[in-house]
Structures are given as structure tokens and as C-alpha cells.
Amino acid sequence: MDLEKFENSPMGRLVPISGSDQRSGEWNYFAFVPKNLPDEPITLSQGTYLQVANARAALASLDRSSKQLTNPRLLSGPTLRREAQSTSALEGTYATLEEVFATDEKVEPTDQNLREIMNYVRTANYAFAFLGDNRPFSLDFLEDLHSKLVKGTIADNIHGGKVRDIQVMIGTHSGSRIQDARYVSPPAGTDLVIQVRELLGWMQDDKRKNLDPVVAAAMVHYQFEALHPFNDGNGRIGRLLIVLQFLFQKVISVPLISASPWFEARRADYYDSLLAVSSIGDWNQWVKFFARGIEVSAQEADQRLADLIALRSELQNRITTGKLRAKTAVQLIDFILGNLVFTVPEVQDHLSVTYARANKLVDQFVGLGILKQFGPRRMSRKFASPDVLAIYSR
User: Fold this and answer.
1) Could you give the CA distance from residue 99 to residue 374 in angstroms, rounded to a whole number?
2) Are 290 and 271 in contact (CB under 8 A)?
3) pLDDT less than 50: residues of the chain
4) Is the dihedral of CA 190, 170, 178, 150 positive or negative?
5) What is the pTM of this model?
6) Rounded to an integer, what distance in angstroms lies between the CA atom of residue 59 and that of residue 263?
7) Closest by alpha carbon to 144, among 156, 162, 129, 166?
8) What is the pLDDT of residue 57?
9) Identical topology for domains 3-300 and 322-393
10) Where are the domains of the chain?
């Protein structure tokens, strides 16, 4: 860490830390401890305020579009898997979108990368349900998220589900010295726990009602990443908090936005902008960058929603032309829009019909070119709509 960049930071202070490792022995260095988020408004340029306004407009448009659907939550599943794939990629965990779409959430993957990605899916679903019950953010809730995120991974055995009790750093590789880190997070201990609690309180303070939700989300994301409260998974939880905060503040009513693909495509700028807040207090550049990412992500989600609504109408016409007028045929269309890869038993369960009826209906959709078999032919056949997959994959 370039200590000179942090010595006069208006955002926090350097504190001495010490430790030892097998390669370099005893060491003494410094960690950066950010100040708590301010109650007073931060200074932003006119251009940044304009970008924030554009982001809010894009989020509002997406929310309006989602209300055109009878059950917009059907589409939150594919959006979440898309987000899970990208947010994990930012942390170095890779799997293809097709692999993520095809993985059964109820079955534990043998592939370690897929396991971590599906952990994110389960974690986010738990978080959405938690907020749906109108419960407040708390440290217990945050630790529950971490516990679910790292379940069955190496991090699960290193204080998983608890605020870390070890020193962590960012921007290093295995075997490197702490001095080589790009950023050294605050030391573990009571003060770190207190700061995490204060951040959660800041998020829910009534005074935040006077702060634009996009600006508030940008500030919370910075603070969470600067504190880095867990031994692993901070980036993924920090980006999940963006969506949770928008839901909490009722900026959106359904989690249909996936911001991580935009940040992943600009990861160097993403990390640089966050670091500039800590080192020189540059809120302006970070908020502008963040708001642009939210704007583009919301616009893409809005377009994706429009394409799915148009596809739904087209598919309904195709089944009518194909003389499939049963109510279950229309219900199957809605099912395939929100379940990208599925089996006949899953259709049977969703439609509450016999296996024979579900199998026949799927075969009829295959005959109409709406569905195709996904992957190799096995006992448990899987199906997908190429048109729906194309919309979510672009």
C-alpha cells in the first residue's frame, strides 16, 4: 500500500498493525481505518448530480415496466443468476452463464466455482425474503448472509458467518507481503464490529430520506468495501447490498437489476474509484462512476424486460397458431420466461398436472420450436427456450 497516498486522507487514518508469516517472519505495517459516513451531504459536481438523476430515472422506468407483468418476480430468478455469475467473476470465481442457468438450486454442485456461485443465489434469495418481511438490517442478518455465502467453501472454516478476527488486505497474491497490498483493511476487533453496526444504522436512519438513494447506495458500498468486515466474500455481499438498499428504500419493487456485469467489464476503474475515496476523499468521481453503472444496468434490465414481454406475446401467438389453447400452455410460457433451464417434473410441479400431461406439453412446445433439449440426452432431460436464453445472455 502506498502509505504516502493515505497519510493525509480526509476519509480516515492509518493505524499501526503487526503480525508474522512463514516467509517473511515478523512484520510491522499500517492499516487504513475509514471514518464513519458523514451525516451532512457530500460535495458533488453538477455533472455528477445529472448522472445521479439519470440513474434514478432509469430505475423508475424499470420499476414501471416490471408492473406490466402479472408476476414480475418470476423474472427475478434469471436476473439473480446473471448477477451471481458476474459478481463472482469479479472475485475470480468463473463459470459460464449456461452452466449457472442449468444448475439446480436444490442440488449441491460438485464444481467448487459453481458451488460458490449458487451460494450467492441462495444468499440473495434469503436476503430478498428477509426484506419482504419488513425486518431491519442488523449485524446478525449480515453475518447470516456471509454464512450462507461461504457455506462449503474454504472461507467457511475461517471464521465464516462472523465479522473477521484476522487481518485482511486487497490486491495481493498468494505468498506476497502485506507491504505489497494495494489496500490494507482496518484491523479486526471490537472497533471494526462497532463500525459495521454504525454503517447498518446509517443505512436505515430517517435522515437518509433526504439523500438521493443512488448517492446513499454509492456511499454504503464504498464504506462496506473499505471496512471489509469478513475474511472473504466482501465484494459479493457489498454488491448485493446495492440491490437490497434500493429495495429497502422502495426505489425498485422487484430485484430485476444486475449491476455487476457493468462493474466487471470495468473492474480496474471500479477498484481505482473506490481507492480514490479512501486516499484523497474523491467522492465525486466514485459517485459519478457508480451512478453511470446503475443507469446503464437499469436501462439494460428495462430493455430485457421489454424484449421478454414482446417474446411472451409472440409465443402466445405461436401456441394459438399451433392449436394449443389450453390454460396450461399459457402458464408454461410464463414459466419458461422465469426458469431458463428445467425438467419435465419441474413443469409438472409448477402446473399441478400429471407427469404425462407435462411431458406431452413440453413435447408440443419442442414441436413448435419454442423449446429445445438442453445439454446431452439423459434420464433427467432438461429443456430451455433458445429465445429466452438469448435475451438473458446478451
Assistant:
1) 11
2) no
3) none
4) positive
5) 0.90
6) 17
7) 162
8) 97
9) no
10) 3-300, 322-393
Find the DSSP H helices in the chain.
3-6, 46-66, 76-89, 97-102, 112-132, 139-149, 190-204, 213-227, 234-248, 260-265, 267-280, 283-321, 327-338, 344-351, 355-367, 386-393
3-300 fold: Fic-like fold (1.10.3290)
Q: List helix spans (H) across 157-282.
A: 190-204, 213-227, 234-248, 260-265, 267-280
Tell me which amino acid residue 345 is. Answer: P
Q: Which overall architecture, per CATH, does domain 322-393 show? A: Orthogonal Bundle (1.10)
Cell of 95: 463459470
* 231 and 161 Cβ atoms separated by less than 8 Å: no
> 213-227 and 234-248 helices cross at what angle (nearest 10)?
160
Beta bridge partners of 383: 342, 373
Q: How many residues does the chain have?
A: 394
Answer whether 346's CB lies under 8 Å from 339's CB: yes
pLDDT digit string (tens) for 336-391?
A: 998 889 999 999 999 999 999 999 999 999 999 999 998 766 556 889 999 999 99
Rounded to whole angstroms, the Cα distance separating 15 from 354 reads 66
| Helical axes 76-89 vs 386-393, angle rounded to 10° | 50
Q: Kindly list the distances between the CA atom of residue 24 and the CA atoms of 32, 165, 181, 226, in Å, as whole numbers in the listed order.
A: 22, 21, 15, 26
